[in-house]
Amino acid sequence: MSVYTRIAPVVEIRGAVKHYRAPEGHLVPALDGIDLSVGANEFVTLLGPSGCGKTTLLRVISGFEQLDDGELLIQQTQMNSVPAHQRPVHTVFQSYALFPHMSVGDNVGYALEVRGVGKAERRTRIAEALELVGLGGLERRKPGQLSGGQQQRVALARALVDRPALLLLDEPLSALDRQLRQSMQRELKKLQHELGIAFVFVTHDQEEALTMSDRIVVLNGGHIQQIGTPTEIYDRPANAFVAGFIGESNLFEVSVSAGNADTADLLSERGDLLQVPRRDLQVGQKLQAMLRPEQFQLDRPQAQGAALEGKVEQTLFIGKDFEVSLRTVHGSQVKAVIRDTGRHDLHRLQPGSSLQLWYALDAVHLIPEVKP
Amino acid sequence: MSTLEGRKRLQLLGLLSPATFVIGLFFIAPLVIMATYSMLEPGLYGGVEWNFYPDNFGRVLGWADGTLEEFDPVYLEIILRSFKLAAITVFLTLLVCYPAAFWVARQPEKMRNFCMFLITLPFFTSLIIRLYAWVLILRPSGFINTTLLALGINTPINLIYTETAVLIGMTYIFIPFMFMPVYASVEKLDRRLLEASADLGASRWQSFWKIIFPMTLPGVAAGSIIVFIPSLGNFIVPSLLGGAQVLMIGSLVEQQFLAARNWPFGAALAMLLMVAVLICLILNVLAQNRNKAGVS
Ligand SMILES: Nc1ncnc2c1ncn2[C@@H]1O[C@H](COP(=O)(O)OP(=O)(O)O)[C@@H](O)[C@H]1O
Ligand SMILES: [Mg+2]
Question: Which residue intervals define the domain ABC transporter in the entry (chain A) (predicted)?
Answer without folding.
Answer: 11-246
